Amino acid sequence: MQDAVYDYENRIPAGFYDKIYQRRTGVRFCWHDLKFRTVAAHLRASRRLLDIGCGPGTFIGNYLPGMEALGIDLSASQVDYATRTYGSAAHRFSTRSLAGLAEAGERFDAVTVIELIEHVVPEDAIRLLAEARSLLTTDGVLVVTTPNYRSLWPIIELGVNALSPVSYIEQHINKYRRDLLAAHLSAAGYRDVTVGTAVGLAPFTAVFGLGTANTMHAIERGMKYLGAGNLLVATARP
After folding, report:
1. Judging by DSSP bridges, how do beta strands 108-114 and 48-52 pair with one another?
2. How far is 65 from 27, CA to CA, in rounded Å?
3. CB 85 within 8 A of CB 59
4. DSSP-derived 3-state class of residue 17
5. Using CB atoms within 10 A as the burial measure, which of 59, 102, 115, 134 is most buried?
């Protein structure tokens, strides 16, 4: 599911992104919060969810109350952190493969793939999306997010690379725009594909407080981000 060249197990400390989130303040917390809130809004009718590439478990642990959820990731250290921090009878984390879940007959009425497919080459992204489709119930929904490279994201990425101990230079190898993401979903066999954008400038106004950022988010959402949000958000049916 991830680029074999980049050593995700050893180069990203366990819980790295969750510890940023747990600050509950600042631009980076706000970015993750608005992203996760956007994804969760597409899941209100779901009961059983699979989160592919769950990392330290932040999304499942904070945005899915009352929902049964399984998070999977290739990184054993991230899964261990997620289990210790957010694990419960309803919220589980594992290094199981998509193929293993399919062989066991597992089915989910929602699958999320949150900022993962940009880390793999196109053919692997399509293969991952197709494997995810096989795990959905007939009326299930897939929700995918990935950076929008026809937005301000390339500039934002340069800033993150310069200021953060974890850089995207080696990680982001599949640079999506709307039409490319829609094409990959169609190639993976999905129907009713919709690709929009989310998370505009609101996170950067968090320097003035989260209230300001939330107000800005509401304004941008009402304007549908003028189609230029920094994240692509796609939904699709199997």
Report:
1. parallel
2. 25
3. no
4. helix
5. 59
* SS3 of the chain: helix, strand, coil, percent, to 5: 45, 20, 35
Taking only the tens place, the pLDDT of each residue in 7-25 is 778 889 999 999 999 999 9
CA distance linking residue 184 with residue 118, whole number of Å: 12
The arrangement of strands across the sheet holding 48-52 comes to: 91-94, 68-72, 48-52, 108-114, 136-147, 231-237, 191-198
pTM (predicted TM-score)? 0.94
pLDDT (tens digit, 9 = 90+) per residue, 93-118? 999 999 999 999 999 999 999 999 99
Give the rounded distance of the alpha carbon of 126 from its chain centre.
Answer: 16
Contact 52, 1 (CB under 8 A): yes
Check the CA dihedral 233-234-235-238 and report its sign.
negative
